[in-house]
Amino acid sequence: MISGMTGFGASDFSIKKVKGLVEIKSVNHRYFDPAFYLPSGFSAFEERIQKIVFAHIKRGRVTIAVRIIERPGVDVVLNPDAVQRYVDFGKALARRLGIAYDLTAADILKLPGVIETKEVFVPAQALWPAVEKALLKAIVSVAEMRRREGRSLVTDIGGQLSRMNKRISQIRARANALLKENKQTLSNDEFAAYRKSNDINEELARLSHHIDEAKALLKQNLEAGKKLDFIAQEMQRETNTVGSKVQDKEISAAVIALKGKVEKIREQANNVE
């Protein structure tokens, strides 16, 4: 069954004291149009992420965001050389001035350069396995949401196609009735000319064929949006020809109704993957 193009999925990940979130959003677009919002160091994975997403989503504007929510924090590093220099200097100063040496560990830790803080850095390569797993989970959620939209689209488009068939039957019945009426009132030559200029059997047959093609397309598990739009264009062309060939109030009304339904199908085709 066809899929829509609107979807959202998210999945968190955790590895090496790093916590993050992967979010994927998709909306309507004529082609596959990805946009990436990735943390520092992940630009090298952009192509790989695109391939993974494209394997599941063929059409739509897709936003892929990876956010780091929590990092390991910082490491505190002691500089023993600096500590030893402070101690030696303190002892020498105490001896020179003849005073007690009372430098404590707490005093030393307050001195510049004794301790350093360094942010713990986890490279993107180490995070990738967890990010990839979360990415695949998020894609599953997006795909399921798009399939649910697809089921709604099938219901709506299928209803439009069924109503089109009813209008075609109405047009065919009215066209046959007009033939019978004109056969009784026109001469043989006039009737032959009328029948030729008002013959819409070919257009109605093609229109019915396009409807069958569209119905079959709705059942396929393929990217159907572009093909459905093409079929709708052909439906519109055949409908216009019917309207231009037969000048009759009842048929004209049915043609207008057909055009409205075709336009609705074209609008919905923009929502189909």
Strand content: 15-25%
Distance between the termini: 11 Å
Number of helices: 8
Strand order of the largest sheet: 1-2-4-3
Total domain units: 3
In the CATH hierarchy, the third-tier topology of the largest domain is known as Four Helix Bundle (Hemerythrin (Met), subunit A)
Low-confidence stretches: none
Shape type: rod-shaped
The SSE string, one letter per element, is EEEHEEHHEHHHHH
Structural class: alpha+beta
CATH architecture of the largest domain: Up-down Bundle
Number of strands: 6
Tell me the name of the CATH class of the largest domain.
Answer: Mainly Alpha
Helix content: 55-70%
State Rg.
36 Å
Average predicted confidence as pLDDT: 92
Biggest sheet architecture: 4 strands, mixed
Structure description:
This protein is α+β, with helices and mostly antiparallel strands. The model has no long low-confidence stretch (mean pLDDT 92). Helices cover 60% and strands 17% of the residues. The longest helix has 62 residues, at 124-185. It folds into 3 domains: 7-72 and 125-145, 2-Layer Sandwich (Ribosomal Protein S5, domain 2), CATH 3.30.230; 74-119, no CATH class; 148-269, Up-down Bundle (Four Helix Bundle (Hemerythrin (Met), subunit A)). It is built from 8 helices and 6 strands; from the N terminus they run βββαββααβααααα. It has helices at residues 46-54, 80-97, 105-109, 124-185, 188-197, 201-218, 225-245, 249-269; strands at 7-15, 18-27, 32-37, 60-70, 74-78, 115-119.
